[in-house]
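Q: Structure tokens for this one, please.
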Amino acid sequence: MPMYTFKCGGCGVQSEAVVKRKTKKVECNVCGEMATRELSRDMAATFQSGASMSQKTGVQELDFDYDRAIGEDSRRKWDTINKRTAHKQSVVSSTPGAEIGDLSRNPDGSYVVMPKQVRQTVDSARKEAHKSTSM
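A: Here is the predicted structure, written as tokens:
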């Protein structure tokens, strides 16, 4: 079946749909009114062979804004992860004999190296918890 472009008269959203050639109107996925098939100048139709189409809002600027927002959110999260990792590495490197597993996170978000006895208690509690969940 060919893919056609439809434009809603109610909200103006333009969308694409794979429909039979006879189909002249489809329901708008935004406002629910009937969208009318637009005729392209060269009357070319794109055919899909069972492949799934990507989700589109029908408004190119809106799609771009979503992509930009997702990218910006991802960048902020990775920046936070990188800062946290750098802080952990700085704490570990400033404490002789310390390893990443020796760190404990404080309520304020900073990290400290746990004393050896505390680390042993934490490790034994983890082992016990692991035993009880694997039974």
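A few notes: Helices lie at 60-93, 116-134. DSSP finds two helices and seven strands in the chain.
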